[in-house]
Amino acid sequence: MAKGLGEQNREWFARYKEDVKKEGKAFFPRAMLHDTVMGFVVVGVIIGLAVIWYYGAGDSPEGEGLEPGILGPLYAAPAEPGTTDFIPRPDWYFYFLFYLLRIFEWPETVVVATVGIPTVLLVLLLGLPFYDRRRERRPSRRPVAMVAALLTVLSMGVLSYKGATAEESLGSTLIADGVPKEWAEEQGFAGNERAEAGATLFAQAGCLQCHIYLGFGAGALGAPDLSEIGQTNDTEYFVQYLSNPARFGNTVMGSYSYLGEENLAALGAFLEASKGGESDSDSR
C-alpha cells in the first residue's frame, strides 16, 4: 500500500537529519555567521549611502544656487499648503495598488481593490509552505507554481507601469484651452470675476479627477455631476461644505480648507453660478 503523507514526511525528515550529520553544515555557527555577516553588509551599505547623500548634496534644491548630489538635495523647498496644481502620488512600490484603485469604482467595489485582492494574495503566499509540501524544487517540475509566479510578477509590473504613467490632472490642459471661460459663457456667469476665478481654480485643484462638469471629468468614486449644483444651495453653503465635507456626511472627500478663505469663496461663487448649461453629456 502507498505510504501516507505523514509517514513519508517523517522518512524524509529522518533522511535529512542523517544527511546533515554526514555531509551537511550545522546551523550554529555556520548559518548564523553568514546571516550576521550579511546583516552587517546591508547596514554598511545603508550607512554608506547616507554618508554619500549627506556630504555630496547641496543645501538647497537646484535653481537656488547649489546643485544637488547624485542622491538628491539635502532638503527640498518648503511645501506650499495653498497650492492648487500639486498632484499627490504614492511611492513607486504602491503604483500597482494605485492603478488598481482606478479600475474599481467607489464605493461598491473599491474594497475589492484595497482589501480583497491584496489580502487574498497575501494569505495564499503565507499558506504556500502548508499546502505545497512537495520536496521538488526544480522549476521545470513545478508548472503551477511557476505560472502563478510569472502571472503575479507580470500583473504587478503592468499595473506599476500604468500607475507610473497615468495622467492625473486635466487642469493645465483645460486652462490652456480656455475651457473655464467657455464654462462661464455657457453657464451665464461671464463677467463675474469671482465665479470665473473659481472656475479656473476648480480646474487647477483636480476636482475633475472625481467630478464631472459640463461633460468634462472622470466621474470617479461616486462623485456627482456638478454642472447644475448651483440650483441646490448658495455660496455660503458651498464654502462650508468644502471646508469640512465630513460635517455633511461625506467621508470620502477631503477638506479644502487649506486653500484659504479667498479661494474657497471663489469656488463657492463658481458652484452657485453653475445652474446648468447646454452641453454634450459625454466626457471629453
Strand residue percentage: under 5%
Structural class: mainly alpha
H-E string: HHHHHHHHHEEHH
Work out the number of β strands.
2
Distance between the termini: 71 Å
Shape: elongated
State the helical fraction. Answer: 40-55%
Given as residue ranges, the uncertain stretches (5+ residues, pLDDT < 50) are 279-284
CATH architecture of the largest domain: Orthogonal Bundle
What would you note in describing this structure?
The chain has 284 residues and is mostly helical. It has three domains: 1-78, no CATH class; 87-168, Helix Hairpins (Orthogonal Bundle), CATH 1.10.287; 171-273, Cytochrome Bc1 Complex, Chain D, domain 2 (Orthogonal Bundle). It has eleven helices and two strands, in the order H-H-H-H-H-H-H-H-H-E-E-H-H. The protein has helices spanning 5-22, 27-56, 95-103, 110-126, 128-131, 143-165, 171-176, 179-187, 193-204, 235-243, 261-273; strands at residues 212-213, 216-217. A two-stranded antiparallel sheet has the order 1-2. The longest helix has 30 residues, at 27-56. It is elongated and about 90 Å long.
